[in-house]
Design a protein that fits this description.
mainly alpha, Dna Ligase, domain 1, EC 4.2.2.29, membrane, cell membrane, cell wall biogenesis/degradation
């Protein structure tokens, strides 16, 4: 009986020791959590950390330990916390901004959020495909994977089958993206956005347009984009081109000639340039050019399919960024004299223009 009593006593002491041990373990775990995992990291300034694709949780912890962000005990606790909360597989690759004062627990939250540092690239309205590719290739945070930069190779690389040259098929906008976004992914995104905007505009088109397809609307929009930087004039200019197309008149628009000249364009259009034998030369050929000539904005797309009504068939630059619109060749000729030739025009032409009191261009000067 005395032996059984002694055994029971020893067993009770043993249980007590186990209880104390577990209590201390819990206290230690709580201390690890509250102090080690919730205390700020040693870096007193904002910093950045990059997780390469395929990096394991242990590798990240070891790297943070080498950098001095997590000591060995905290790194162990950090890995344990990630596995306990089933976040080990939720950590996403990328470049992260870490604010000063972030705790190890907060660091885990950041790494599983996927909210990586975003970089931006603005594709301006009105640039051409060649300029677009140059801009994409020049960005230091875009991963350059395209081996050949000619139009056909680029279109093949982004998985798009298109019979036409890719001019105008990419939407001008400001794009945000994480580091190491590939050039292919960037271009695919810009292509899809333009396809969406073009389809939306086409569905909103007015009746009786001389445009048979969304692609023709895109082509006209690109010309409108290059003709004016004045937002209020886009629909007016589109209206002029629509009426000329309806009447079978040549568009006679300088931006298409400039596009036809390509790198030979030196900033001036000469009489001989208007005779260049190119399907893009709308002084020589009737109808739209075979492809867009630039990246049109959303506003230009809307103008192309919702042009202003009116009777204007001509316009001329006034020298202040805006244009003067005319319904007749006579008024247009007067406007050219008044706004462009000015004193360079022979006196007899200025006198001739003055014979038309109905010409508002003459009255404006």
């Amino acid at each position: 009986m005395m032996l059984n009593a002694r055994l029971r006593k020893i067993f009770s002491i043993f249980l007590l020791l186990i209880f104390i041990f577990l209590l201390l373990a819990c206290a230690g775990a709580y201390w690890l959590y509250t102090y080690r995992l919730t205390a700020p990291l040693p870096t007193s300034e904002d910093w950045q950390y990059t997780i390469p694709t395929g990096t394991s949780l242990n590798t990240i912890a070891e790297d943070l330990n080498r950098q001095g962000q997590l000591d060995t005990l905290t790194a162990f606790a950090w890995v344990y916390l990630a596995r306990l909360e089933k976040k080990a597989q939720q950590i996403k690759a990328g470049e992260y901004a870490i604010p000063a004062g972030t705790s190890p627990q907060g660091l885990l939250t950041i790494f599983t959020s996927g909210k990586t540092i975003q970089y931006s690239l603005t594709i301006p309205e009105g640039i051409n495909f060649r300029e677009l590719i140059i801009a994409v290739q020049a960005h230091p945070k875009i991963k350059h994977t395209l081996k050949n930069l000619d139009a056909a190779s680029v279109m093949q690389a982004i998985g798009i089958k298109h019979e036409q040259y890719p001019e105008g098929l990419f939407y001008p906008d400001t794009y945000n993206f994480p580091a190491n976004t590939t050039d292919v992914a960037f271009l695919q995104r810009a292509y899809q956005l333009m396809a969406t905007e073009l389809e939306t505009a086409w569905q909103q088109r007015v009746d009786n347009l001389p445009l048979k397809t969304p692609y023709e609307a895109l082509t006209l929009a690109s010309i409108v984009e290059k003709e004016t930087g004045v937002a209020s004039e886009r629909a007016q200019i589109a209206g002029v081109f629509i009426r000329r197309l309806q009447k079978g008149m040549r568009l006679q628009t300088d931006p298409t000639v400039i596009y036809a000249l390509g790198e030979a364009y030196d900033g001036n259009i000469r009489s001989k340039d208007l005779e260049v034998d190119s399907p893009y030369n709308t002084y020589r050929y009737t109808g739209l050019p075979p492809t867009p000539i630039a990246l049109p904005s959303k506003a230009a797309l809307q103008a192309a399919v919702n042009p202003d009504k009116g009777d204007s068939l001509y316009f001329v630059a006034k020298g202040d960024g805006s244009h003067y619109f005319s319904a007749t060749q006579t008024e247009h000729s007067c406007a050219v004299i008044q706004y462009q030739l000015k004193d360079k025009a022979p006196a007899k032409y200025r006198q001739w223009c003055g014979q038309y009191p109905s010409c508002s261009a003459c009255r404006a000067n």
